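Appendix B, record 7
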Amino acid sequence: MSEPGLTSEGLGFEVLARDGDARRGTLTTAHGQVQTPAFMAVGTAGTVKGLLPEQVSETGTEILLGNTYHLMLRPGAERVAHLGGLHRFMNWPRPILTDSGGFQVMSLGELCTITERGVAFKSHLDGAAYDLTPERSVEIQHLLDANITMVLDECTPYPADLPTARTSMERSMRWAARCKEAFIPRAGYGLFGIVQGSIYPEQRLASAASLREIGFDGYAIGGLAVGEGQQLMFDMLEVTCPALPEARPRYLMGVGKPADLVGAVARGVDMFDCVLPTRSGRTGQAFTHFGSLNIRNARHKDDPRPLDPECGCPTCRDFSRAYLHHLVKAEEMLGPILLTRHNLHYYQSLMGDLRQAIEAGRLQDFAAQFALDQARGDIPPV
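Structure tokens (predicted):
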């Protein structure tokens, strides 16, 4: 276990309890602590869509994710730095992690070209040409004042054959070393490496070994939840997590559904991010203790009950399913706001329950009951 609190350079991370492979810990940054396992709400362009910062905080969220690609295009990293950094710019005084921008850039398809130097691409906003190298990605994240900077990696497509996965992974490892050289260490700030290797265990292990040799403040697991299915994702976690340093946080990128979080925590993951709770809230989907439901469905239009009778969030406390159904069908902006607030609260409550279960040594029992509740489905009207 690492010592608690900040080191002279980097992040502090302490594992407080274990239950099997699951860990309960505390991550310390220059902008405060994060209790792990942790779910990071996604604030792509400097905002969690539809919510004020204090509303995000009230859900139990302790750390946000910002997106390098979107912020570098608009309003621009230099402008954000001039205005005091992303924390001040968006009025979020707590920790922020920024992704490297690589995933968004490479999703542009024909608008981007990958070389050993980095990625050349054209903006989806105005077609302007940009170069995103490992060094520039780290520089942008420094200008944004991100507490956790992510290395630039190549997002291996899925499915990929073994030679493609190996070539992609090895390039990402070379880029990771360049990011480490470009990163400026300071107390309360850190750089995370990203494990790649697609669905090939030997490539995952080789990637983890390369990253450990370079040395990072934390280790992310990328290239999963891209269509391979939950069981294969869990298989890759079972290979990868034991190969990562015990004393550093582990972050599974872009995951996921509640069942994904429970299964990944049991396999040793400490941190997550995903757009699901916020994006789903904007489209009428709510996550509950009894599975997900679509508030657009007509069966809710006369239902006076809350979304989730076991939830204490303001949405469930103050509004009925019938009212939420009305708001969404009428395309009133309050509907997505209330659903987003509930979904984030549900995700954060789930992470809190996982932390408590690990501390009590009852994670296996918690996971079994969680699966039963989710399989039971939405409770019928009284």
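Remarks on this record: The first strand starts at residue 12 and ends at 19. Residues 334-360 form the longest helix (27 residues).
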